User: Which sequence fits this backbone?
């Protein structure tokens, strides 16, 4: 049977290889997702001052450093016994920094990582309007990298839609930068912010920064509403077959995010803008139970004691295989959207219903490549709107940080959703240094290999059953994979112990 | 009209977080759109042929570009290396693409591409000095491209542009400098091969909180006003122009945000700079030693 190997899988973060086995009709019957870079960040963390983790773990991923900084701060807050004592200002500032990252990430993902699969930049260079002058000049030099070479074939947007997509691709380069500028107002700088620390945030809000943040958030909200969301709908209409492609495993989990009330030490039960929980096709919302998370490594390049071993027989990835209640779960914007829809989150329901009625689709079609893009755009809108509200709730004269004593022995878990999905940090402190640190990140869930029972990971499951029209140009495969927004630098982490139920660590008791 | 000179760039990512790529996207003037589509300087166009995060092509199509670039540009290409090179386990901790059905270790690619390049830009602290992946116990034998070239007898000229991540201006400025004046001359570089233009001055000498230090007004916890020395600031062993260039279009930077400098541009990051939130240099400063060969700062 023919096999398609895509290595490197580009326009994602990091080093990924995709293998698909096709039957004679061109249908994918088997798929393998591999992470092919290992750094061993958790080993590097051992023996260090626990506070350093909130800086070093941001270097797990330069595309989404803030969620790592946040999860790390949350797990250290828990270990230091101050998770319910973060000042209101600190909570809001963390949300503003994390929210800016979300808006940046979703714009970057749709335009700069994905839109080249749908929009035709080369055709746009022949448009006569003034707006395309820079592009015409560029094309006239005859060197079309990085837009060529590419897969040939399926660029089917009409000229009006193609114009919008290409112009917004260029405009979005600026808009995502502006989201980062906004982040730096209270985060110090970015990528890799210097604001969120255990105990709160280092910066102090001032009136002029609040106003500046507010207007930056407004500008981004306008871009999301007037360009990003409409562009996603343009693509969704032209490529409506992608509502039937890449459904995936059908189980969804989210840790929720944006703390609205910091008084509960248990992050799994804390009031968040987007709620924690799980759901599936039944759309019944269930509460999160961290003790149900297990990780398998049968097909991962690790020995049973956790030592990395790229020569391990039968294994094909540095990614491990986390499962919830023994089942593969998808994480990310679609998971958050469906869990929140199921839990009755009104703002999410309203946005989703409007989009579904415009496209005349039902909830089942949302489990698809296009559904993931739509979920991301809706979320960007909900968050940008919330940022405008939150920033005006800051109190310039109030504290942003609570002091703490460094414990000699302690343990903590921090959970938050990153743009790509569920992120968990766990620290164990002995003799005032890190004895063990472990991370389960979004693409560990989505990009995982098979588990010990042979159950495929979420991306693999979305690939299997899809039809590849032209196996020299397997656009279907890259479109399915990219709809998950994989982040491989995040995904690869060492394991603790084979099959150890991470959630058994009782830190909330 | 004079023919535009195309400067082909292969941008290779090793043991990295992609933070330096994202940072370069944040360039304000020129914008990243200027950089990609237009001539960075009149008559000179950066032709970004291979960059895994933004290029249209995937898989074999992408790998073919590397082969083609090596062959079809007589004056060579610029290699931008982002991330460290993991050398342990026959290089199998980082592979890119396949040859004859077998994954290609980055070590193999880096040897070929650095050897044939007209120059190597080591972008970020990982590529410059090893950075986070080479932090103790260095589980993957990660090293900088500079050390990697030295061990493999490759004498291609290089310039280091450290920072975790590097500031977009440092990268764009270094590229523009090479385009205008050729590769940096010895007197333009410091002893670590960084342009003095960006890394010539000590943060502490230009810090807006220097007045607090001189008068002994110290912050004793994070978020306090005052000099951040007591809460771990490494600004007095870190060379960069952060205090006046600032970040993200000049909006802010670590110390203005109340966060101590963690020394991310220096060869001792992260090991020598840890613990990041403790002052400790009185005892350690005299013991710091620069290994001339590897460019790594170590504790003797």
Assistant:
């Amino acid at each position: 049977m023919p096999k398609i190997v895509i290595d490197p899988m580009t326009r994602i973060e990091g080093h990924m290889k995709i293998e698909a086995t096709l039957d004679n009709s061109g249908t994918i019957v088997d798929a393998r997702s591999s992470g092919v870079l290992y750094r061993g960040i958790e080993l590097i963390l051992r023996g260090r001052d626990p506070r350093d983790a909130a800086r070093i773990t941001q270097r797990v991923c330069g595309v989404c450093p803030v969620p790592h900084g946040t999860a790390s701060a949350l797990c250290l807050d828990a270990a230091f016994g101050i998770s319910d004592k973060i000042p209101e200002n600190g909570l809001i500032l963390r949300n503003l920094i994390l929210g800016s990252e979300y808006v940046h990430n979703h714009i970057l993902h749709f335009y700069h990582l994905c839109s080249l699969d749908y929009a035709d930049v080369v055709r746009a260079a022949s448009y006569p309007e003034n707006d395309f002058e820079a592009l015409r000049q560029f094309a006239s030099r005859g060197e079309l990298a990085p837009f060529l070479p590419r897969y040939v074939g399926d660029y089917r947007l009409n000229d009006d839609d193609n114009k919008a997509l290409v112009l917004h691709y260029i405009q979005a380069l600026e808009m995502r930068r502006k989201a980062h500028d906004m982040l730096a107002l209270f985060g110090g700088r970015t990528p890799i912010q210097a604001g969120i620390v255990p105990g709160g945030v280092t910066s102090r809000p001032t009136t002029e920064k609040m106003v500046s943040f507010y207007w930056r958030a407004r500008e981004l909200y306008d871009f999301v509403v007037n360009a990003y969301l409409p562009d996603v709908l343009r693509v969704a209409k032209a490529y409506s077959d992608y509502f039937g492609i890449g459904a995936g495993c059908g189980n969804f989990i989210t840790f929720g995010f944006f703390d609205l009330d910091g008084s509960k030490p248990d992050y799994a039960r804390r009031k968040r803008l987007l709620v924690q929980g799980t759901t599936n096709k039944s759309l019944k919302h269930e509460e999160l139970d961290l003790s149900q998370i297990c990780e398998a490594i049968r097909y991962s390049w690790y020995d049973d004691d956790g030592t990395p071993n790229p020569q391990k027989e039968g294994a094909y990835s540095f990614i491990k295989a986390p499962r919830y209640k023994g089942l593969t779960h998808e994480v990310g914007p679609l998971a958050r959207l469906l869990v929140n829809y199921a839990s009755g989150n009104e703002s999410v329901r309203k946005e989703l219903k409007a989009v579904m009625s415009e496209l005349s689709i039902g909830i089942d079609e949302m489990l698809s490549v296009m559904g993931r893009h739509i979920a991301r755009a809706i979320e960007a809108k909900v968050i940008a709107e919330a940022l405008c509200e939150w920033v005006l709730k800051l109190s310039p004269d109030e504290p942003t940080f609570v002091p703490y004593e460094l414990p000699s022995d302690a343990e903590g878990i921090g959970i938050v959703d990153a743009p790509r999905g569920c992120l968990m940090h766990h620290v164990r402190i002995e003799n005032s240094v890190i004895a063990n640190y472990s991370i389960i990140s979004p693409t560990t869930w989505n990009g995982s290999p098979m588990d010990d029972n042979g159950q495929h990971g979420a991306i693999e499951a979305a690939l299997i059953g899809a039809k590849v029209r032209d196996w020299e140009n397997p656009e279907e495969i890259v479109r399915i994979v990219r709809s998950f927004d994989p982040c491989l630098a995040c995904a690869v982490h060492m394991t603790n112990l084979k099959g150890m139920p991470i959630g058994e660590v009782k830190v909330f008791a | 009209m004079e023919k535009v000179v195309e400067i082909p760039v292969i941008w290779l990512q090793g043991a990295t977080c992609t933070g330096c790529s994202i940072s370069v996207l944040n360039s304000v003037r020129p914008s990243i759109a200027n950089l990609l589509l237009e001539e960075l300087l009149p008559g000179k166009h950066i032709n970004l042929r291979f960059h895994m995060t933004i290029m249209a092509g995937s898989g074999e199509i992408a790998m073919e570009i590397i082969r083609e670039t090596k062959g079809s540009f007589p004056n060579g290409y610029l290699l931008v290396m982002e991330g460290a090179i993991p050398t342990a386990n026959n290089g199998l901790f980082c592979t890119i693409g396949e040859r004859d059905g077998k994954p290609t270790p980055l070590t193999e690619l880096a040897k070929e591409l650095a050897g044939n390049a007209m120059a190597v830009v080591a972008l970020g602290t990982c590529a410059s000095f090893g950075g986070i992946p080479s932090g103790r116990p260095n589980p993957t034998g990660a090293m900088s491209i500079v050390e990697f070239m030295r061990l493999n007898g490759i004498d291609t000229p290089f310039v280091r542009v450290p920072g975790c991540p590097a500031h977009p201006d440092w990268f764009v400025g270094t590229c523009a400098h090479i385009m205008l004046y050729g590769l940096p001359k010895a007197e333009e570089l410091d002893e670590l091969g960084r342009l003095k233009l960006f890394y010539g001055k000590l943060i502490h000498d230009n810090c807006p909180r220097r007045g607090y230090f001189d008068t002994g007004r110290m912050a004793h916890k994070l978020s306090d006003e005052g000099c951040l020395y007591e809460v771990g600031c490494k600004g007095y062993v870190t060379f960069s122009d952060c205090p006046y260039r600032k970040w993200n279009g000049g909006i802010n930077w670590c110390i203005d945000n109340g966060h101590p400098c963690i020394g991310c541009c220096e060869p001792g990051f992260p090991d020598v700079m840890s613990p990041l939130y403790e002052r400790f240099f009185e005892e350690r400063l005299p013991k710091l030693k620069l290994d001339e060969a590897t460019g790594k700062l170590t504790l003797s």
In short: The radius of gyration of chain B is 20 Å.
